[in-house]
Design brief:
388 residues; Rossmann fold; globular
């Protein structure tokens, strides 16, 4: 069948979780289906993007919004009561262009990734459509409200309320719905959340696999370092956890790796703390490190950093909130912590018991290899298209 996929970003390069998810879904689905990609864009296109995407899509249409267009989108959406997460990516010009693509391609299905693209479903109201919520945006904004500056809280509260309404309303505009984890499914503000299909992320275990090499860092935190939850986690790790670890292990080194580090993250660099920024091959960060630490306090979704680290056979320390989506066995496949003291204790335990760290890393590798490969994860999405 022919599937028209609509995304809020051009899914290349793969430095963000939503881009990683849809890219690998396209790759898997292309084996049995013809795919057309319509991507909204607000940044310069990577020189390799179209070539990479055309390996799996028969047609790739990119609609780029100028800064003026984005401003108009936000003003229009704000006036209409849309969440800013939706308004930012929605424009009449893109909707008109999408209508042309639908008329020319005549797809069997529409597949919208994230509620950011849900308005584009209106460009093809007569076609069956799937919405991938992926994460519950309303819950993510709600959890962040307590940590933002007081003068910003009214704006976050406004966005939270609009997201709650929009996530519920969007449900009725689509024939099928998916989400990244059971935890996120149960947080959706819809009456029949159990009807939403869980389609988890996977990890490419052919690409991410154990590699030998000299360890330059004991600890690693990895991710999109302009994403607020990652910024807050990096600050927590450097300012609160690392001083406690260094009371017992004064020479511990930490690598903070990932694209677009915010000024708050860059300021964390110092003695024994390296902020690398974008790395061409993220496997180098995993290979050079001994332990992944992911203190995700407002986590939604399934953390790709945990999947990738486990596939590279690194022991991991994270929060129960992050593990709710992963469902790893604490003490066997990873370690859990909530407070700075608990994180420091778990890190010290792994540093002082290398044999247990190796055993845990091997168990983590087995977990992701058996349950979180992209072929298995995308098969649930493909069955949904076939059933309907």
């Amino acid at each position: 069948m022919k599937i028209l996929c609509i995304t809020s970003r051009v899914p290349w390069p793969l430095e963000k979780g939503d881009k990683l998810r849809i890219f690998h879904q396209l790759k898997q689905l292309s084996a049995h289906h013809e795919l057309v990609l319509f991507a909204v864009n607000d940044k310069p296109l990577h020189p390799d993007a179209l070539a990479e995407l055309k390996k799996y899509c028969s047609r790739v249409e990119v609609h780029t919004h100028s800064r003026m267009q984005v401003l108009l989108n936000l003003l229009r959406g704000g006036w209409n009561g849309q969440p800013f997460q939706v308004a930012y990516f929605t424009s009449p010009a893109a909707q008109r262009r999408l209508k042309q693509v639908v008329q020319e391609e005549r797809p069997d299905w529409i597949y919208c990734q994230l509620i950011r693209t849900a308005e584009y479903r209106k460009s093809a109201p007569d076609l069956p459509a799937v919405l991938d919520y992926m994460d519950v945006f309303s819950k993510g904004v709600e959890r962040r409200m307590a940590n933002v500056a007081v003068y910003k809280r009214w704006l976050f509260r406004l966005e939270w309320k609009r997201l709650l309404r929009y996530e519920a309303a969007a449900y009725h505009q689509f024939n099928r719905h998916t989400v990244i984890s059971a935890q996120d499914r149960d947080l959706l503000p819809v009456a029949d959340c159990r009807a939403v299909e869980v389609v988890p992320n996977g990890v490419d275990t052919d690409y991410f696999h154990p590699q030998d090499g000299e360890k330059s860092f004991e600890l690693l935190f990895n991710g999109n370092m302009n994403y607020p939850p990652n910024i807050e986690s990096a600050q927590f790790l450097v300012n609160r956890v690392l001083p406690l670890v260094r009371k017992k292990h004064p020479n511990v080194r930490l690598l903070i790796s990932g694209a677009s580090p915010a000024p708050e993250v860059l300021s964390l660099a110092g003695e024994g703390v390296v902020v690398s920024g974008w790395v061409e091959d993220v496997r180098d960060s995993y290979r050079k490190s001994s332990i992944l630490v992911a203190p995700m306090m407002i986590s939604i979704g399934l953390q790709n950093k945990l999947l990738e680290a486990m596939a590279m056979q690194l022991p991991c320390v994270t929060t129960s909130l992050a593990n709710n989506a992963l469902q790893a066995v604490p003490g066997e496949q990873l370690l859990l912590a909530e407070t700075a003291e608990e994180f420091a204790a778990q890190i010290c335990y792994l540093l002082e018991h290398p044999e247990k760290a190796s055993e845990m890393a091997a168990n983590g590798l087995q977990l992701v290899a058996s349950r979180f490969n992209w072929a298995t994860c995308t098969a649930a999405l493909e069955r949904m298209f076939h059933r309907a």
